[in-house]
Amino acid sequence: MTRVFIHNFGCRVNQAEAFDWSEKLAEAGLMVDKDWRASDVVVVNTCGLTGRAEADVRQFLRKLHREKPSARVVVTGCLAEKNREEYCQFGNVSAIVPNSAKENLVREVASLTGETRRAQEKIQPVNYRSRALVKVQDGCNARCTFCLIPYLRGPARSVPVEDIITQIEKAVVRGFKEVVLAGIHLCAYGEDLTPPVTLLNLLQEIVKMEGLELLRLSSLDPRLLPENWLEFIAGEEKICPHFHLSLQHASPEVLKKMGRRSRPEEYAAILDYLHRRRPEASLGADIIVGFPGESEEDYLFLKGFLEQSPLTYFHVFSYSPRPGTPAAHWAGVSEKIKKERATELRKISREKNLAFKMRFLNEMRPAVMVKKNGSRAEALTDNYIKVALNEVPAVEVRQLVEVRIKKVTPLEVTGEVV
Fold first, then answer.
1. Where along the chain do its domains lie?
2. Of 15, 44, 101, 400, whose CB has the highest number of CB atoms within 10 Å?
């Protein structure tokens, strides 16, 4: 049987796409492998969000070409069309599938292998993920001045509600207890459907489903979070107390240059509301440091905002110009200053995240078993704490357990299944 490895770069949407492909590859009679070195075909799902992400893709393709030249490589994702010429230079790249043709990816892989599933063959569950990821939306209409994604993924497009419900039903039948909703611009879900619906409408339908224990939301845009949405996601017990917001910055001047059309006081109000309603919640954010024109005053404003906020972690990205975007033409901040600022903010994030985890010492949280490997096991709590388990429980991966946190260090959280 042909073995296929899927290597993802970037966002949860890429992960959700890979989750879907893994199911369909199994239906086509192919085995989804966990080790690219043992695979016959390697699917590389690329990311073009930052220059660093683009470099990582290039590095992996070189490694594949050097260490596994016999593998047939299929390149897809945000860089597939943009860097087509470059990727075609690798001798083992057999196919390039742009974002616009991703629905054909499984068929492309199957055609490379010459294998198809016998009609009478029973489809076996694919142990590709411990949590089901469902892509509900793709593309973006926002056109922030720094972002290349709208050019690479196109305009916002939503999956009909009934199709999403069907996908989740299948996941529940297969034993998944947690579903993660992914979208490039999740809060814009449904605006393009006829008739239009909203993310709130979708969530209200999903939480009615029997058998679904936890529903986790990927990145939320604070510009599109009206009060009634906040009330629902903070008050619905099936929705995980883990909210990740695409803040990007806090300085009014930088936000204006980014084309974000938002104010720091609006961010603060949303974060404070979520913290008050769900004090156990993990609150995260994406932050860009060193944006063109970011002054020392802008940076100190951002730093102060992050320190004083109830955020429990933040992903810090040093700004990298993306050719084709307006900001790429603007005078930038020096690499030295960007590195210093990013290092300082990442240190603050680590400190806040450690303090957050310490709050749950000796407490119990619901969690999904996400890993079992010999003597090692790991669970992920509803509020996004990875817990290494002292003993490997009899419970299988994907199942819901109660975990007591016994020890918290800067490197690891350990606990036990109760």
1. 3-113, 132-358, 364-417
2. 44
